[in-house]
Amino acid sequence: MSQHLLSIRDLDADTLKRLVADGQAFAKQGPTHRQDLLQGQTIAMLFYEPSTRTRCSFELAARRLGADVLNLDMQSSSSRKGETVADTVATLAAMGVRLFVMRHEERAAIDAAARALPDGCHLLNAGAGTRDHPTQILLDLLTLAREGHDIQRLDLSIIGDLRHSRVVNSWLQAIEHLGCHRLRLGAPGVFRPETVPPEATLSDTLADSIQGAQVIMALRIQQERLTKGTTGENELFHEHWGLNEARIAEWAPQAQIMHPGPMNRGVEIDSALADGPRSLILKQVENGVPARMAALAWLFSGDKQR
Amino acid sequence: MSQHLLSIRDLDADTLKRLVADGQAFAKQGPTHRQDLLQGQTIAMLFYEPSTRTRCSFELAARRLGADVLNLDMQSSSSRKGETVADTVATLAAMGVRLFVMRHEERAAIDAAARALPDGCHLLNAGAGTRDHPTQILLDLLTLAREGHDIQRLDLSIIGDLRHSRVVNSWLQAIEHLGCHRLRLGAPGVFRPETVPPEATLSDTLADSIQGAQVIMALRIQQERLTKGTTGENELFHEHWGLNEARIAEWAPQAQIMHPGPMNRGVEIDSALADGPRSLILKQVENGVPARMAALAWLFSGDKQR
Amino acid sequence: MSQHLLSIRDLDADTLKRLVADGQAFAKQGPTHRQDLLQGQTIAMLFYEPSTRTRCSFELAARRLGADVLNLDMQSSSSRKGETVADTVATLAAMGVRLFVMRHEERAAIDAAARALPDGCHLLNAGAGTRDHPTQILLDLLTLAREGHDIQRLDLSIIGDLRHSRVVNSWLQAIEHLGCHRLRLGAPGVFRPETVPPEATLSDTLADSIQGAQVIMALRIQQERLTKGTTGENELFHEHWGLNEARIAEWAPQAQIMHPGPMNRGVEIDSALADGPRSLILKQVENGVPARMAALAWLFSGDKQR
């Protein structure tokens, strides 16, 4: 059996904590340090949806571990000649690729890829539609840990487009394992989630959602996932839910701000807040590389031999 | 004079056998082993036609030999600013690139590139329209050798789209050099080749084409090369010529199955057969990397100094 | 403060001379020699305008210095999700990228990127619209030096599309610093520059522009920058200003020919001249790699620690 990372559910609480600890060790080494942990390995990047940011973060993580990177242009349909996802990954596995970092709008395609891989090959889900984005949560946990926060004592608010966000879905899975002192979700109208888990409460005003919070995570308004007929929602969202310094100062004066990026500046968050002293946003980006190093190294850690 | 690999005809029988032997040695080393044979060299990938599969195979081969890889996006016409193929390769050669792996729909473009290169630079044809694909034959020969087959004693059938296939064209050139105990070609209607060489016979039913064969090579129906007005050919082909376990069990019960990929599952080959125990298809993919390592290393082997 | 290279104006005469000397040393090492000067560094290639040639030259330079290269596809708007240039570079800097090689049609975008970078990060302008292309001038200076020319004693003519050329603009800045014995500019009609600096004279016939010149630099007719309604200009340009052996032999029999590439053969220059013994064009390409190595290494040279 091969280890995959398709969802935060693939990780128990101990493994989550180990990955955060490993990420802290990798973060201390700095960006120009090179390991040979994965030397000789080739990591294939299969991004069926565009993501410069996430692909670069994985590519840098792979190189810092000593691995080679194979970039495939999966968005260009001409590259595929009608080949299935399963045939694509099985073919690359036959060529000697042992780790696949894959983003796809459908979780089912990622599951099909995992099933098609032979023993000794590993798949990491780098974002699946609205369902999962496990390494985003690893980097958020690493960021909170490096800021001195203990998630079990944390007063956390997640606000924004909760319905279309794989980030919130993966966060809720992490909190199932790890617990969280207080978790509020906040979203209006079309952005409200279909269900709310017992660990969280759902608020329908910004004030109720963030009052007294220690950390506020703003989510991206996924404009590319909104169906037609919902234009105008962004303006309304900005008016009533957009984060700015005045609102934070009034309702959550101690709060730090997180955002998984890329931001819609002026929609879910104001620039002065995003670039100001409360913001952990660039620290999240920075922690993405060591968090992904921890995930990539962990996937290989169970192999008897490489 | 620089050595190029534009066609199987560039290789005599001894060189073909040497490349297969070199491929066997590279295959034994496994995918995470790294050589420094081509250290400091940069290999440019010039794919004017898309091919994720072949490009990745060459990229992995180059890296296992210690070379750097330079990927050029030659399909995007905006990248070219009207520059000729000859100017493109002469420019890269001036920058220090010594080996070019090139795919183009016209063999004439590949010949023009070879003529434009200065001494000490090498060109490898990674697929030219319907004419040549020499490294595909090297990997097929390596696969047959690793399965214990001796090509001179082999009963081989090649069936499918013989008219538009550079694979069959290159295979016939190899057999001119190496001989083959029995070679049958089989294809219906629009897929029949324009000429049949003396080494082969052409059959017009599947049964006649494969009866008693040891190895059956199914070719891809090149849908992208078919002219309009031939839709319906695929359905007819599948009905009368599609390979499946029942047909193989009846007519060639000892046969192993090969396919250069990517497959049209359900057209020229059924999935159960492609993924079953007779299939050498993933072994062909696996052998592509060491076969290409052998070809790349051989191109440099005549240089006095690097 | 971080060192950037946005324009030739960022370099004083001593630094220009040092970079040419460094380029000569790197050129002597040859293309398969590898340094570890920038080992562990990652250089991001941000080409908002396509340029296979310049990107490859920088990629080869980076690898010869021991750096890793991160290629971003900035032309595909889907990759950007509306993110600003400033957010893109700040994000990559947070991931640990310390050097950015950027091409953009607007110089303002390059300035915005430089402002968004934190301390310790460097930006190199690899071509900004019609304004700047500093490393092209470095490679031209290196080429002249390797041919034994002293710029202060040189009789140089630059002819062609002077209005839309960032090359001539950057060259004029270099000559402000370095001086030049005689500098003539030549261009007809729509290609004439808006202003002529005191160091140069502007001629309106080819004969006047090149008579007795030691080096003639032909510029590319920037077809992609011409506005509609100027077709026909190319034919007229070729008739009266196109360089060929007969014209050079008559008016400047000692002259060597340069061109920044890619050439429009048969428009601004004839093939026999471009490929003949007077041509320094492939030497310019060759010198592009060591000249860019010198620039990349220099950007890091002021850092206290890496």
TrEMBL record, chains A, B, C:
It catalyses: carbamoyl phosphate + L-aspartate = N-carbamoyl-L-aspartate + phosphate + H(+). Belongs to the aspartate/ornithine carbamoyltransferase superfamily. ATCase family. Residues 154-299 form the Aspartate/ornithine carbamoyltransferase Asp/Orn-binding domain. The keyword Transport does not apply. This is Aspartate carbamoyltransferase. InterPro entries: Asp/Orn_carbamoyltranf_P-bd, Asp/Orn_carbamoylTrfase, Asp/Orn_carbamoylTrfase_sf, Asp_carbamoyltransf, Asp_carbamoyltransf_Asp/Orn-bd. Heterododecamer (2C3:3R2) of six catalytic PyrB chains organized as two trimers (C3), and six regulatory PyrI chains organized as three dimers (R2). L-aspartate binds at residues 81, 166, 220. It comes from Natronospira proteinivora. The lineage of its organism: Bacteria, Pseudomonadati, Pseudomonadota, Gammaproteobacteria, Natronospirales. Keywords: Pyrimidine biosynthesis, Transferase. Pfam families: OTCace (PF00185), OTCace_N (PF02729). The keyword Transferase applies. Its EC number is 2.1.3.2. Residues 3-145 form the Aspartate/ornithine carbamoyltransferase carbamoyl-P binding domain.
